[in-house]
Hints:
mainly alpha
Amino acid sequence: MSEQATPDRPPSRRQAARLAAVQALYQWQEGQDAPGDIVEQFLKVRTGESGEGGMRRDADRPLFKDVVEGAAGHRQELQETVASALAEDWTWGRVDRLVRAILLAGAYELVHRRDVPPKVAINEYVEIAHAFYDQGEPTFVNSVLDRVARQVRGSELTS
């Protein structure tokens, strides 16, 4: 399982990379910048910035770059995978934009990062949802990513 951040223990390097990746994917969805340009902006300018738009200096940079560029590069496939995991009355367009960024990143890791155990990927992105939301969004993220994991990596899940 992942090492959870607590008030006494800051997020791990990988958690920091995933958080920054979600922020970068959100920025990519909102604007005209290419994923590679956003990655460079984070790595060269926004590293070390505090607040929502920054990335910790010690974040796992290769993971950050892979998640952003991979999720963006496989956007159509990942959107279809996530959309098929949504409840019958939900559509991709109905999902909040930040939640979409979280789901894209999580789905990317579930589908394309076989080195990351499914439960770790799900837990990491649920924690990111908790960082931004205090209502039902983290539960929604958990439910959708669990369905995605069962679709694409069901043999690795025991429960």
